[in-house]
């Protein structure tokens, strides 16, 4: 055994981080100029294994610093400090259409990072690494409290930051797949926002009665948040992705009860029957289901369902009436929703109405639909089941991995900045345009 | 007077300018106007402050960055840390800061103007922790269960206050975790070959360089330094040699001798995940005695030695290295006016029986000796001199590294943990408090620097 290589040291700092924190992966004491592979391995909650790797050459001091040195090839290349996480992909032989989503956010995501001799591309399970470390990635900071909410018939979870409060509040909505998705709300609470993740499509009420919730469901959620003793009732924002955008815009513009300080809409559209209930809006999309296309891999493309953007005002949420700042996040390669076309139309409508100073659009070339918190793998397509279509479909989300991952990182940073500026700080209006 | 007037005018000019820009903004932003209006109705202008700590889960020896934002400008605030020890005692530290013109504080760069520490001390809230008012006397903070973290609550209070003062408004808080074990580190209880110890292995296949980790005469099995070594990539074995129920003989004397430490060293050498040619030994306080005995015993070749505040010999040992009862010989004990005892003179080289002093000149590996110059428990400086001279005479100066810290006491431990100047030594037949020495700020600086150098020394001599 080569003595020197036995002493290769691998370290990751910090070894316990939040999901959106960067880390530094350092290899030391390698033979100068030696070829090494750094690999990440993660087994997700449903048992699938994911891996990422990069090929490096140790410098003259025998060191590799992933934050400064380029990966020559691998699941990522170039200088990519967090490439070992965002380029994770299912190991060869895995089921197709996987998407990594953490259900239990009270435990960390554990990733084993190892360094191997040579430039390896496969068969890692049969190789003995030179060194390995385990890294924990958390959605919840210590002291964040997770509180299930069933008041008023809600199916929701409230995450409260540590401390006395009061904290600004946030309503967190996901898309057409339904379920109670908690991870983004947990992470936002770790950044100081009292965040309530809401299940509005597969709530207990809906599962028991077979009926969809109405507008009052969201207003109840708002009230519960507003009246919480540790929430600053006058500083509540809403964040929605995909179909969650439709709900967010609807509530922001039309609700008499909900008064938002800010809204974040990711990968969504303002196209919806203005007077429609949740059910009617869903129905509107269903009506257009015939416009579904399939690519050569038989992956479903749903972006055409809302195209062309209607001119009929009764089919578009009247964004000209918005009174709070709105941040739109758009992936230009979104194959699931026409987010880019909608953003353009929203911009025009707001320019005509004279409230475009409220609008900020973040538009990312080659990013897809699922713009999520950073440093998690990109799924260009995955099996998906909406609440209306009861069978699983291979759905094309879009996006190229590198650009999509950069978009996630940049968008998240700007979303946090936007939320802090509007909910926490002394609002300096010039900062809106500097996003 | 004239200058003051000028300044006031200037201030008003600045305020007016700011108000003007606010007014023009209000005109343009109905959303802002409405929201600000609401705030005005509800409360004062001050927004919810935000306190952050990064990383929020860290190893004990990692620096964290604590920041407060969205506070009033140029405003006095107090940052306070609180935690409970495993024994249930409350430990606290606090510091006074003033926010800057942006309403922020940053403990990495700002200066404390009062409290448990002053000056720019990014980790002051941790090393300046003290038992809260009303606590039992003579406490020392030591973690027994290294598999769980310390939970330290950091809070931001209005004004310059202290935790003991009753009325204080808490503006924000954050909870941090302080860990001795990195993820993936394995903790293995060792009760074989008569050894009472705990082995910590880093994650990964190994083989790893290793350390034998020895503590002092307070006894028991202390795991925390080993856990940290393993978190830094070294296998590490902590052994107990007195004061443990699984050891033979009464707990208050050392009933194990040289063969015990040899077995421990051998265990590491024989372990399949340890590189047998890369094992070092670290000893603090009395632990230095077996450290030097191993190094000067034929057949054992540690790759390096680290000695912290210990003596070259001991008045207590018989030929096998087993000890007599420590309290049997009190002639060199010195008591202060509180009745606290300093054992320093016991280990003055002149007071040590010559036959107990190890032939340090026979040591063939690098040796690092760490001195706390305010050590009231061991005559560290004098013993360091003896070792240094012995090695110099043998032409081995190049093997010797000396770190000497003014104001540091006996217990030079991993960094960012509090300094105990004295603590309870025993309770029977009556309470006895022992003086360790050290003053908080210089002791903290010593721990931080020494730890860094210890790890570098280990990297150099165990990994390359």
Automatic annotation (TrEMBL), chain A:
Note the Pfam families from the entry.
Answer: BAAT_C, Bile_Hydr_Trans
InterPro entries referenced in this protein's UniProt entry, alphabetically = AB_hydrolase_fold (IPR029058), Acyl-CoA_thioEstase_long-chain (IPR016662), BAAT_C (IPR014940), Thio_Ohase/aa_AcTrfase (IPR006862), Thio_Ohase/BAAT_N (IPR042490)
The chain positions of domain BAAT/Acyl-CoA thioester hydrolase C-terminal read 214-424
* Active site (catalytic residues): 242, 334, 369
Looking at the record's lineage, which domain of life comes first? Eukaryota
Q: Residue limits of the Acyl-CoA thioester hydrolase/bile acid-CoA amino acid N-acetyltransferase domain? A: 20-151
Drop me one GO molecular function for this one.
Answer: fatty acyl-CoA hydrolase activity
The biological processes this protein is annotated with in GO are:
acyl-CoA metabolic process; fatty acid metabolic process
The text of the family note is: Belongs to the C/M/P thioester hydrolase family.
Q: What is the name of the protein in this document?
A: Acyl-coenzyme A thioesterase 4
TrEMBL record, chain B:
Which terms under GO biological process does the entry name?
acyl-CoA metabolic process; fatty acid metabolic process
Q: Which domain of life is it from?
A: Eukaryota
Domain BAAT/Acyl-CoA thioester hydrolase C-terminal as annotated: residue spans? 259-463
Q: Where is the active site?
A: 285, 375, 410
Acyl-CoA thioester hydrolase/bile acid-CoA amino acid N-acetyltransferase domain segment(s): 61-192
Matching Gene3D superfamilies: Acyl-CoA thioester hydrolase/BAAT N-terminal domain, alpha/beta hydrolase
Q: Which GO terms describe its molecular function?
A: fatty acyl-CoA hydrolase activity
Concerning its family, UniProt says: Belongs to the C/M/P thioester hydrolase family.
Q: Kindly give the PANTHER family that the UniProt entry links to this protein.
A: ACYL-COA THIOESTERASE 17-RELATED, ACYL-COENZYME A THIOESTERASE-RELATED
Tell me what this protein is called.
Answer: Acyl-coenzyme A thioesterase 4
Q: Which organism is it from?
A: Oreochromis niloticus
């Amino acid at each position: 055994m080569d003595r020197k290589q036995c002493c290769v040291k691998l370290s990751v700092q910090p070894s316990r981080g939040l999901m959106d924190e960067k880390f530094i992966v350092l290899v030391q004491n390698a033979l100068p100029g030696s070829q090494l592979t750094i690999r990440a391995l993660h087994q997700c909650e449903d048992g699938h294994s994911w891996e990422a790797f990069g090929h490096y050459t140790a410098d003259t001091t025998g060191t590799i610093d992933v934050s400064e040195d380029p990966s020559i090839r691998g699941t990522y290349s170039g200088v990519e400090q967090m490439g070992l996480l965002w380029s994770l992909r299912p190991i060869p032989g895995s089921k197709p259409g996987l998407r990594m989503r953490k259900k239990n956010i009270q435990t960390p995501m554990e990733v084993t990072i190892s360094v191997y001799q040579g430039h390896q591309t496969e068969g890692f399970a049969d190789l003995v690494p030179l060194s390995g470390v385990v890294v924990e990635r958390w959605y919840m900071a210590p002291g964040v409290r997770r509180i299930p909410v069933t008041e008023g018939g809600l199916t929701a979870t409230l995450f409260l930051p540590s401390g006395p409060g009061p904290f600004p509040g946030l309503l967190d909505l996901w898309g057409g797949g339904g379920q109670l998705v908690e991870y983004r709300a947990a992470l936002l609470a770790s950044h100081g926002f009292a965040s309530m993740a809401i299940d509005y499509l597969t709530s207990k009420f809906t599962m028991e009665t077979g009926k969809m919730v109405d507008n009052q469901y969201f207003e109840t959620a708002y009230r519960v948040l507003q009246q919480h003793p540790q929430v600053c009732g006058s500083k509540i924002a809403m964040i929605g992705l995909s179909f969650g955008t439709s709900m967010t815009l609807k509530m922001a513009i039309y609700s008499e009860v909900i008064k938002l300080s800010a809204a974040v809409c990711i990968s969504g559209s303002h196209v919806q029957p203005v007077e429609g209930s949740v059910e009617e809006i869903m129905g509107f999309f269903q009506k257009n289901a015939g416009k579904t296309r399939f690519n050569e891999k038989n992956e479903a493309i749903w972006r055409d369902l809302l195209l062309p953007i209607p001119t009929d005002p009764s089919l578009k949420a009247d964004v000209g009436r918005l009174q709070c700042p709105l941040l739109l996040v758009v992936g230009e390669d979104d194959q699931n929703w026409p987010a880019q076309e909608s953003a353009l139309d929203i911009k025009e409508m707001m320019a005509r109405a004279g409230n475009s100073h409220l609008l900020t659009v973040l538009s990312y070339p080659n990013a897809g639909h699922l713009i999520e918190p950073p440093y998690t793998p990109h799924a260009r397509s995955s099996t998906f089941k909406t609440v209306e279509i009861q069978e699983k479909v291979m759905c094309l989300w879009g996006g190229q991995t590198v650009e999509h991952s950069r978009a996630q990182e940049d968008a998240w940073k700007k979303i946090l900045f936007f939320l802090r500026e509007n909910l926490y700080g002394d609002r300096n209006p010039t900062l809106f345009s500097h996003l | 007077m004239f200058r003051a007037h000028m300044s006031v005018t200037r201030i008003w000019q600045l305020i007016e300018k700011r108000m003007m820009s606010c007014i023009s903004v209000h005109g343009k932003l109905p959303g802002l106007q409405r929201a600000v209006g609401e705030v005005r109705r509800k409360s004062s202008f001050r927004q919810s402050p935000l306190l952050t700590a990064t990383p929020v889960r860290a190893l004990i020896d990692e620096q964290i960055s604590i920041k407060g934002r969205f506070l009033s400008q140029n405003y006095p605030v107090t940052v306070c840390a609180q935690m409970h020890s495993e024994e249930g005692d409350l430990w606290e530290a606090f510091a006074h800061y003033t926010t800057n013109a942006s309403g922020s504080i940053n403990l990495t760069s700002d200066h404390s103007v009062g409290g448990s520490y002053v000056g720019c001390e990014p980790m002051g809230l941790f090393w300046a922790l003290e038992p809260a008012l009303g606590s039992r006397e003579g406490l020392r903070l030591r973690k027994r269960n290294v598999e769980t973290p310390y939970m330290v609550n950091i809070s931001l209070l209005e004004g310059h206050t202290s935790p003991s003062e009753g009325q204080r408004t808490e503006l924000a808080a954050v909870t941090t975790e302080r860990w001795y074990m990195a993820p993936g580190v394995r903790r293995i209880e060792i009760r074989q070959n008569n050894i009472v110890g705990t082995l910590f292995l880093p994650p990964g296949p190994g083989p790893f360089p290793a350390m034998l980790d020895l503590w002092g005469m307070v006894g028991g099995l202390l795991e925390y330094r080993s856990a940290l070594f393993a978190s830094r990539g070294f296998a590490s074995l902590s052994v107990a040699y007195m004061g443990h129920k699984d050891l033979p003989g009464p707990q208050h004397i050392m009933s194990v001798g040289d063969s015990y430490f040899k077995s421990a060293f051998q265990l590491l050498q024989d372990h399949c995940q340890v590189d047998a040619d890369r094992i070092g030994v670290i000893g603090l306080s009395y632990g230095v005695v077996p450290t030097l005995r191993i190094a000067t015993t034929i057949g054992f070749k540690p790759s390096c030695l680290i000695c912290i505040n210990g003596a070259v010999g001991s008045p207590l040992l018989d030929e096998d290295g087993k000890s007599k009862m420590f309290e049997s010989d009190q002639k060199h004990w010195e008591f202060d006016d509180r009745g606290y005892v300093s054992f320093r003179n016991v280990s003055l080289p002149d007071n040590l029986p010559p036959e107990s002093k190890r032939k340090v000149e026979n040591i063939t590996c690098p040796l690092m000796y760490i001195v706390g110059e305010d050590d009231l428990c061991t005559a560290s400086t004098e013993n360091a001199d003896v070792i240094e001279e012995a090695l110099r005479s043998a032409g081995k100066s190049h093997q010797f590294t000396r770190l000497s810290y003014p104001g540091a006491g006996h217990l030079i431990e991993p960094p960012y943990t509090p300094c105990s100047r004295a603590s309870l030594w025993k309770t029977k037949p009556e309470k006895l408090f022992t003086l360790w020495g050290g003053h908080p700020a210089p002791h903290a600086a010593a721990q931080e620097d020494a730890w860094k150098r210890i790890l570098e020394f280990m990297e150099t001599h165990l990994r390359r």
